[in-house]
Amino acid sequence: MSQPLLIDKYGRQLTYLRLSVTDRCNFRCYYCMPEEGMNFAARQELLSFEELYQLSALFCSLGVNKIRITGGEPFVRAGIMPFLRKLSQLPGLEEITVTSNGSLNAKQIKTLQEIGIRKINISLDSLDRDRFFKITRRDSFEAVYASIFQLLESGFEVKLNCVVAENKNVQDILPFVELTKHYSLAVRFLEEMPFNGGDTFQPPQWSHREIYQHIANHYPGLQKLESEPSSTSVNYRVSGYAGSFGIIPSFSRTFCGTCNRIRLGATGELRTCLYGPPATNLRDLLRAGHSQEQLTNEILEAVSHREQDGFAAEASHGQAVHASMSVLGG
C-alpha cells in the first residue's frame, strides 16, 4: 500500500521541504535578527543529523522531492557536509538546494560539487561594501562577492536574494539588474517581512509593484519569463542580458494559491506556512519514541489544517509575528 501524499484541503500538494539545520548565523542582518540578545538553541535542542535524515526520508515517502537546506547559516554547523552527502542519496529526492549568506570557502564549494548539489541561493542585499556592512553588521562583502563568482565559475546555478528597504539599499536595485548583463545568474528582489526578532515592524514601503516600476522606468520593454506554477517570484529579463531578475511579493503574499512548501525548523517545529504558528514539534515526538506511522499521521494532520494563505496563517497567531527568520528557518 502506497503512502499518502501531502495534499491540503485546498488541493495543493506539498512537494518542497525547507529544512533548517541551525538557528545560528555568523551575520546579523537587521531584517532577520537583532545585533545582540539572540537566545540560540542549545546543541541538544537541535535535531541531530540522524534525526534530520530520518524525518527527511519520511517526508520523501510522502511525496516531497525537493529539499532546500536553510538556517541560520547552514555552513556554520559542524558536520553539515557529511549530512548533505548522505541526504543526496535519499530515495525519492530529486533535488537539494542550499540558501547561504555566501560565507563559503573553496573547500566547501568543491565538496558541494562532489555531492552533486548545483543550485545555491546567496543572500546579498547590497553591492556596496559600506551598505553591506550596515545591513549585515559584518565587514565581509569582498569574501561573499568573491564566493559568488567562484560558484558561477564552478558551474553552479546561482540566485542572489536581495531584501529591498527604504533607506537601506534602494540604490542597489539597478546595479543588481545590471549585474545580470554579463553573468548568467538570477537576482531576486524581496519585500521585507516581519521576521526581525524585534517588537515592531512597519509594512514595506517598497512593495513588488514599486520595485517593478522602478526597474521598468529604467529598462523599457522587459521580457516576462515563464515560471513554474509554484514559483514565488515573477521573473523578467532585460533584452540581450545573460541573466534574469525576479520579484518576490513575500509580504504581499500573492503566490499563496500555488505554494507547495512545508517547513521544518532546526528544533523540530513543523510549519505549513512561514507566517503561521508551528503545527507540531517532530523532534519531541521522535524523541518520545513515536513510530513512523504516528509521525506520518501527525504530519498529515498538520497539512489538513493548512490555512488558505499567509494572511489567514498570520491571523491564526492572534498577534503579529516578529520571531527571527533564523528561528523560523528561512
UniProtKB/TrEMBL annotation:
EC assignment: the record states 4.1.99.22
Q: What PROSITE patterns is this protein classified in?
A: MOAA_NIFB_PQQE, RADICAL_SAM
Q: Where is the signal peptide?
A: none
- Quote the CDD domains the UniProt record gives: Radical_SAM, Twitch_MoaA
Q: Which cofactor does it need?
A: [4Fe-4S] cluster
Q: Which UniProt keywords apply?
A: 4Fe-4S, GTP-binding, Iron, Iron-sulfur, Lyase, Metal-binding, Molybdenum cofactor biosynthesis, Nucleotide-binding, S-adenosyl-L-methionine
Q: Does the keyword GTP-binding apply?
A: yes
Residue ranges of every copy of the Radical SAM core domain listed in the record: 9-229
Catalyses which reaction(s): GTP + AH2 + S-adenosyl-L-methionine = (8S)-3',8-cyclo-7,8-dihydroguanosine 5'-triphosphate + 5'-deoxyadenosine + L-methionine + A + H(+)
User: Which NCBIfam families does this UniProt record tie to the protein?
Assistant: moaA
Quote the protein name from its UniProt record: GTP 3',8-cyclase
Q: Please name the source species.
A: Nibribacter koreensis
Gene name of the encoded protein: moaA
